[in-house]
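Hi everyone,

Forwarding the result from last night's run.
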Amino acid sequence: MALLSGAQRAIALGKLLLKAKALVRHGQWEEWVATSTNLSERAAQRCMSLASGEALLAAKAPNLADMTMTDAVKVLEELREPDNAPRTRNTRQQRSRGDAVTKAIKSGQALSILERAWAECTDQERAIFLKKNG
């Protein structure tokens, strides 16, 4: 194992951690990692992420044997980056909506916003709300 690169060792460890996680009872994983390994939860997550993305890494980075764990994590993050782009936009949209709500609350307009939203609801939406909160 000493001849393996840092990335290869991390992937091998990640595979073992994935198998162990499948055996550990739900909700006990963090405790198991803390008591059964010398890894931090974050390090364990990184190794498991690399193991899960091994095929993608191997396809995009044929020099895996020469990579450190950090290099492999960076490559994997770059390969997964397009998936994160829409989330970033959604987060910005949510923040701007949240800012508008915060401003409305601070200015005392929150009740009028809620009244307008209620007026725009369909009867079915109102019934669902009333059923859940009734």
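Confidence is low (pLDDT under 50) at residues 84-89.

Cheers,
N.
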